[in-house]
Amino acid sequence: MIVPRWIQTRDDAAMVKAATQLFRSHFGEDPEGVWAAPGRVNVIGDHVDYAGGISIPFALKANTAVAIRRSGAPNYRVVSLAPGETEAARVDIPINEVGPGNPNSWAGYVVGAVWAAIEAGVIHCAEGLDMAIVSDVPVGSGLSSSAALECSAALGALELASGRKATDAERSALVDACIRAENEVVGASTGGLDQRASLYGEEGKALVIDFQSGNTELVPFDLSGHGLALLIADTNAPHALNDGQYASRRGVIDEVTAACDANTLREVDNAVARAAAWAKTEGKDVEVTCKRVKHVVEETDRTARAAQALQADDLVLFAKLMRDSHESLRDQYEVVTPELESVFQAVGERGSRMTGGGFGGSVITLVAEEEVEQVAEAITKAAEEKEFPEPTFMVATPGAGARRIA
Ligand code: GLA
């Protein structure tokens, strides 16, 4: 018998308790406060953020929580219990050793974000920090566990140092600092979608982010009015965004953009034709270059139409655009793995797509509320037949962005 496995998430009170306990057991004192930041799901608009495109993510109700205390010491001491782990990992690092390339492990997201925010002049704190982290955001699932780490740590360090809530301007500066940490400290050339979703998310709302204008608009996202749920299937085929695959996709887009003398691909007229001409002159693979550029151009257009469909409450159109998006990520951008495709095929004609960077991770599907269990079973069965890892599931509704929880 097939019984789907569900990802457990805890409420704020349980996260505070777990982070505080971890803090006490490692540092022997109470933290000064606890902050949380969510993972995110991107509903549509993938691999367009670094090209000035449009994305529609929302913040998950799965959070990372960090308990923090200023230590007065010249180092950061960070302990972290990843989801499903029983042993905490710990890193102690002198403040002055944090910077580009160091540490380039999970701890780089944490102390790297604090470092980048100090560098940007948005956090004023020269002393060491003790931090204990617990998380419900699955790692390597395309649900932005890294942004949740960065944003909880950076917001916590900022609000602790200032003694007050972060202003809008400070949140915006933290977005940039967290992106910088990811790019320069950990070496993942990601684009900024995740950090915005984690810092700007709101309960019940999705975000329409236009990376060209910099505008982020909060829009109601309530599927239950349509009797639908958003089912996340984590394939548990882990992905890493600093292993060169992500960078190779982004590299093509950045090169074409630079060759067209533009700041973003979005600004380039006739981008596909110009990419073809460039690839030919440079001796690059013309077909591959055109496919990559075509995805970015079409995905941005598709996401703009998806935003209109949401506004018009047209979920039939929205579902179709999701499927088109998946097919483009599969056929043009080539970031869909067999495990992701297995989920997409198993859900039939429903609105469904891979979410996030791809190369592993999760697929989201619009499912009638009463069919959630049955669809999860079908996805599990398909994975079992192909001898893929067993997927795990979550029904996602939009939750709050990064905030102090104790
Ligand atoms: C990852 C990156 C984001 C974005 C997505 C794809 O999540 O961190 O910046 O590029 O992939 O949309």
Automatic annotation (TrEMBL):
The keyword Nucleotide-binding belongs to this UniProt entry's keyword annotation: yes
GO biological-process terms attached to the record: galactose metabolic process
The protein's Enzyme Commission number: 2.7.1.6
Keywords of this entry: ATP-binding, Carbohydrate metabolism, Galactose metabolism, Kinase, Magnesium, Metal-binding, Nucleotide-binding, Transferase
Residue span, GHMP kinase C-terminal domain: 307-382
Family (UniProt): Belongs to the GHMP kinase family. GalK subfamily.
Keyword Transmembrane (UniProt): no
Domain named Galactokinase N-terminal: residues: 22-70
GO cellular component, one term: cytosol
Record protein name field: Galactokinase
Annotated InterPro entries: Galactokinase, Galactokinase_CS, GalKase_N, GHMP_kinase_C_dom, GHMP_kinase_C_sf, GHMP_kinase_N_dom, GHMP_knse_ATP-bd_CS, Mevalonate/galactokinase
Domain GHMP kinase N-terminal positions: 109-201
Listed GO MF terms: ATP binding; galactokinase activity; metal ion binding
Domain of life where this protein originates: Bacteria
Coiled-coil residue windows: none
